[in-house]
Amino acid sequence: MLINEPRVVRAILWKDFTAIRRSKAVLLPMLIVPFVMLVLLPAVLGVIATRAASPDLSRLFDKLPHQVVEPIARLPQHEQLVVLINGYLLAPLFLIVPLMVSAVLAADAFAGEKERKTMEHLLHLPATDRDLFVAKVLSAYIPALIVSWVGFGCFLVVANTVSWPVMHRIFLPTTLWLLMIFWVAPAVSSVGLGVMTRVSARTRTTQEANQLGGAVILPLIFASLGQASGLLVLSPVVAIATGAALWTVGLLLLRGGIQRFTRDRLAGSC
Fold first, then answer.
1. pLDDT above 60 (res 269)
2. Sorting pLDDT into bands at 50, 70 and 90, what band is 224?
3. pTM for this entry
4. Could you report the per-residue pLDDT of 156-215, keeping only the tens digit for each?
5. How many angstroms separate the Cα of 109 from the Cα of each of 57, 106, 201, 210, 269?
6. 62-115 pLDDT per residue, tens
7. How far apart are CA 92 and CA 222, in angstroms?
8. Dist. CA 40–CA 65, nearest whole Å
9. Phi then psi for 214, rounded to 5 degrees?
10. Is the peptide bond before 165 cis (omega within 30 degrees of 0)?
11. Rounded distance, CA 69 to CA 60, Å?
12. Which residues of 220-240 are buried (b: 16+ CB within 10 A; e: fewer)?
């Protein structure tokens, strides 16, 4: 059984969620950055794309991967720019947001307790080491999923609304979009989470955790930028397989973190 004392885990989660709500330094970036990336940016780019007078995208298409260009080139010319921007070029944001939010919260999971001088209280809770680690993982993972899924819902409303004068139909989400948001993006986040929780347990401050964890998180972000648009033109089978591979890596990292995590090691790093 993964959790031995569900009530203790819920109490830790409630405490951490309360701390997140009260901390402007954590809450504001966690909300403002996704709002800019998933709502404001798509709205502005969508309006620009819909007002463009059927531009010739042939030169741009020459610089893009063939698998991205092919499905767009089959559309009417006046729809191509709208679909290119809101349907493909903004796709990396939906892998970056949950990864970014979970990494920020995971960096604060243990290092933040040390900074706030609340580590002693945490160590004396009537919970097993496993329950303590799982609770801290969930306290970062759950908000990341909520922010990314709510942001995705807002993006769908904005993208379809601003594109309606050109598209005259709801063109998002597609099946591949849904797979990426609800399967691949959480898997990417789990990989970052598996790294950042272990880093946070070994560092003394949140800033130090972010600096050390960035060495792993930044390559993941760049990989997400490179692969997100491509996933949207591949088959659902490929998207499912990609997510499965990422889930495997993420769960192995988290499992290793659970096995190595002890109160003695956490106290020794204070």
1. no
2. low
3. 0.86
4. 999 999 999 999 999 999 888 899 899 999 998 898 888 888 887 777 777 777 676 666
5. 47, 5, 8, 11, 14
6. 877 777 788 888 888 888 888 888 888 888 888 888 888 888 888 777 777 777
7. 9
8. 27
9. -60, -25
10. no
11. 9
12. bbeebeebbbebbbeeeeebe
Nearest to 188 by CA among 102, 89, 261, 68: 102
Residues 6 or more apart whose CB falls under 8 angstroms from that of 15 comprise: none
- Whole-angstrom distance, CA of residue 87 vs CA of residue 205: 39
Residue 25, both tokens = 């330094």
Confidence of residue 131 (pLDDT cuts 50, 70, 90): confident
The string of DSSP letters for the chain reads: ---S-HHHHHHHHHHHHHHHHH-HHHHHHHHHHHHIIIIIHHHHHHHHHHHS-S---HHHHHHS-HHHHHHHHTS-HHHHHHIIIIIIITTTHHHHHHHHHHHHHHHHHHHHHHHTT-HHHHHTSS--HHHHHHHHHHHHHHHHHHHHHHHHHHHHHHHHHHHHHHH-S-----HHHHHIIIIIHHHHHHHHHHHHHHHHHH-SSHHHHHHHHHHHHHHHHHHHHHHHHHHTTS-HHHHHHHHHHHHHHHHHHHHHHHHH--HHHHHHT-
What whole-number distance in Å separates Cα of residue 212 and Cα of residue 256? 18
Please check the confidence at residue 227 and state whether its pLDDT lies above 70: no
For residues 55 and 6, the answer to whether their CB atoms sit within 8 Å is: no
The yes-or-no verdict on residue 22 having pLDDT over 60 is yes
Tokens for 86, please give them. Answer: 């809101």
Q: Tell me, what amino acid is at 125?
A: L
- Across residues 215-234, what is the average pLDDT? 68
Task: Supply 102's token pair.
Answer: 């979970």
